[in-house]
Design goal:
The chain is of the alpha/beta class and 314 residues long. It has 10 helices and 13 strands. Strands 1, 2, 3, 4, 5, 6, 12 and 13 form an 8-stranded mixed sheet that branches. Strands 7-8-11 form a 3-stranded antiparallel sheet, covered by helices on one side. It has a two-stranded antiparallel sheet with strand order 9-10. Helix 2 runs antiparallel to helix 9. 41% of the residues are buried. The N terminus is likely disordered.
Amino acid sequence: MAKDSVEPINSALLADALAGLAQPQKQLSPKWFYDTRGSELFEEITQLDEYYPTRTEAAILVAHADQLARLVPPGGVLVELGSGASVKTRTLLDAGGHFGAYVPIDIAEEFLMHTAQDLRRRYPDLNVAPVMADFTSAITLPSTFDGVPKTAFFPGSTIGNLAPQAAIDLLSRMHDLDGVDTFVLGVDLVKDREELIRAYDDRAGVTAAFNLNILERLNREAGADFGLEGFAHEARWIEDRIEMHLVSRRAQSVALGGTVIHFQAGESIHTESCRKYTQDSLRALADAAGWVVDDMFADSDWRFMVAVLKRKPD
C-alpha cells in the first residue's frame, strides 16, 4: 500500500523521482547518488582495481601538475565542480602555492563541509570557500570573488554523466560565469567494451551498492518502500556510453509519495549514463559552448584525457 501518511523529508528528491519513474524508461537522476553514504561509496569505487579512471587521471595530474597549476593566475581562484573528497585536487593545490582561494562545489553538504575542514588543516594559508550547489543548475559563487580571475576544474569525467545538450549547457554556464577564462576538464575516452563493463560492475559489488543506495535514499528521505533485494545492478554498453540500471528481479509495486509505481520482471530504472569521448567529439562539445580545446594531456595508452579549454577568441 502507498504510504500516504508519510511527510516527505526531501520534496525536491520526491518530485524528481516521481517525474523520472513515470517515464516509459524509468529513470532517476544521478545527482541523487551523492548523499553522505553515496559519496563515501564513490570514494571507495575510485580505489577499486577495475576502476581505471581515477588512478589514470591522477597520474596525468601528477605528471603535469606545475603546468596545470599555472593556469590559475596569481591570487586567482580554483573552482571545482562536483568536488567530492577533493583528493585529486590536492595535486594542484600542492603545486599552486600562488592560489588565492579554492572553491569546492558539491551537492552533498555534510560531506562537503567535512572535506573543507580537512583542507583548511592541510592548507592553512589557503582560503577554502565551499559552496553547496547542484552544478547541473546555475551556480552563484561568493561575492568576495567578484572580479577575481578564476579557473574551473571538473575532473573525473563527470561531464560524461550528462546528456549531450546538458553537457553543452553546463559548459555554457561556466563560460558565462564571472572571471572564468580557463576550464580544466577530465574526460574518459572510448576503449574496449569489456574493460568499461568491468569498471562499472566490480567483483566486490561496491558499484552495485552505490547504485542501490539511491533507492535507500528514496526510502529514507521520500517515504518510499523499495525493497533493495528486489533490484539488481547492471552495467550496459550502448553506442558511446556505459549505462547503469537497477533491474527489477520480479513483478512488484513500490509506494512513493502517495503513488504506486509498478515494475514488470526485468524492467529497469536507468540511473546514470557515463559517456566516453574521442578527441573529435570533445572538440565539438567545447565548440558548441563557446570554448576551444587549447591543450590535451593523456596517458600513454590514450585511455583518459585532461583537456584545457579556453574561451574562443572574439
